[in-house]
Write a structure and sequence with these properties.
The chain is of the alpha/beta class. Helices cover 38% and strands 20% of the residues. Strands 2-1-3-4-5 form a five-stranded parallel beta sheet, with helices on both faces. The chain is globular, with a radius of gyration of 14 Å.
């Protein structure tokens, strides 16, 4: 199975979601002077959305900094987006923006820290996703 890389802000919702997945994951730091992780192979990015009412600023600056590196971006295989349904059309917008810009699939959206159903679906989906990628890489 491929890896996971995630970003979580002070609210910790995404970190709680990733912890509940129980899968190895590397965290993108919130502070700009902290070193960024270097995934050893293909990975799925999990990130929350921080958009204003017009959708601006949806992708957190540390995530942009992480993806601005061509080597890291080349290993990205998919995105899982967190958000809050209260924000309507901007719910999960960061995932949509990253998927479109990096030409990878948006695999799943979850609200806040996710539900038990979200966790089960993402685990099963990742297992299937990585299995499909391995079988199509031959």
């Amino acid at each position: 199975m491929g890896g996971l890389v995630y970003y979580s802000s002070g609210s910790g919702n995404t970190a709680r979601f990733v912890a509940r997945l129980g899968l190895p994951a590397q965290r993108i730091p919130t502070r700009p002077d902290d070193p960024l992780p270097d995934p050893p192979g293909p990975y799925v990015l999990i990130c929350p959305t921080y958009a204003d009412g017009q959708g601006r600023g949806a992708v957190a600056k540390p995530v942009i900094r992480f993806l601005n590196d061509p080597a890291r971006r080349a290993l990205l295989r998919g995105v899982i987006a967190g958000g809050n349904r209260n924000f309507g059309a901007t719910y999960g917008l960061a995932g949509e923006a990253i998927a479109g810009k990096c030409a990878v699939p948006l695999l799943f959206k979850f609200e806040l820290a996710g539900t038990e159903t979200d966790i089960a679906r993402v685990r099963a989906g990742l297992e299937k996703f990585w299995g499909l990628e391995c079988s199509t890489a031959l």
